[in-house]
Amino acid sequence: MSKLSQIIGSSRKIVIKIGSNVLSTETGTVNNQLLHNIVEQSCQLMKLGKQVIIVSSGAGICGVGAINKWERRGDINYKQALCAIGQVELMMAYKEYFADFDVHVAQMLLTREDFNDPTRTLNIRNTLFTLVDEGVVPIINENDSVSVEEIKIGDNDTLSALAANLWNADLLVLLSDIDGLYDKDPKSNGDARLIEEIHGADRLLEEIDVRGTSSFGTGGIVTKIEAARKVNSYGIPMILLNGKKMNILLDAMREKETGTVFLGK
């Protein structure tokens, strides 16, 4: 059995982060078919006795889809307004898709301040445990509509790592638009090599090509490595998978797909 398959199979508490790149089509609209497939996979994992928390990007994309006339506006007020509109659309999609499997969802919008204040942190933790224990799937996102630089977490890779540590998760899964971590950018280098298992992420920023982000995502491979460092320091493994592939979570558990596993030293 592969390390990736073994870790998914043995983990009970799983945080799944879904990136904007995964949720968006090439034109920047929401890929509803893929989102529904990820929801279905999450429910299948729950039927296997696992608990699931989702950290989901996509509010901005959903906002553009709802009010297309603001797409090119660069002003921060319009960006935050689009996220406010899109967050409703995003949660409606999650509510509808999880309802297909008789599962309820709950929304949690967080900022950096929430993780820096002990009382707020305790409240987040208690809410997460209560929801999950009752079979409700928390959908976490950054509160983009109120986040300015001083209180902004920055990206959902970081947010998912913070949530995983706070919840004492067994595993963090990042669903991105690449098959895993490569020694160089696979989109521009045909000889890029997939690294399937990494012990200690500290040295990676010096050893691999980490440049570039996509047009729809806010993070790049750097934020994923940082997320791995955060959870690995708490003894939590992280897996990077290609969320654009249908049934990727289940296929990885069945050794039909591969990705990158980040482990501690």
> First CA to last CA: what distance?
21 Å
Overall average residue pLDDT:
86
How many helices in DSSP terms?
A: 11
Counted beta strands: 10
Strand content: 15-25%
Describe the structure.
The chain has one domain: Carbamate kinase. The chain has about 260 residues and is of the alpha/beta class. Mean pLDDT is about 85; it is low at about 210-220. The relative contact order is 0.18. It is built from eleven helices and ten strands. Helix 3 packs across helix 5 and helix 4 packs across helix 5. The protein is globular. Strands 3-4-2-1-5-9-10-8 form an eight-stranded mixed beta sheet, sandwiched between helices. A two-stranded antiparallel sheet has the order 6-7.
Please describe the structure with a list of short key phrases separated by commas or semicolons.
265 residues, alpha/beta, Carbamate kinase, eight-stranded mixed sheet, two-stranded antiparallel sheet, 11 helices, 43% helix, 17% strand
What's the gist of this structure?
This protein has helices at 3-10, 20-23, 32-47, 59-66, 76-99, 112-116, 118-133, 156-167, 204-207, 221-232, 248-253, and strands at 13-18, 51-56, 105-110, 137-142, 171-176, 181-182, 194-195, 197-199, 238-242, 260-263. By secondary structure, the chain is of the alpha/beta class. The strands form two sheets. The chain has an eight-stranded mixed beta sheet, with helices on both faces. Strands 6-7 form a two-stranded antiparallel ribbon.
Q: Can you lay out the helices and strands and say which pair or pack?
A:
Layout: H1 3-10, E1 13-18, H2 20-23, H3 32-47, E2 51-56, H4 59-66, H5 76-99, E3 105-110, H6 112-116, H7 118-133, E4 137-142, H8 156-167, E5 171-176, E6 181-182, E7 194-195, E8 197-199, H9 204-207, H10 221-232, E9 238-242, H11 248-253, E10 260-263
Parallel strand pairs: 1-2, 1-5, 2-4, 3-4, 5-9, 8-10
Antiparallel strand pairs: 6-7, 9-10
Helix pairs in contact: 3-5, 4-5, 8-10
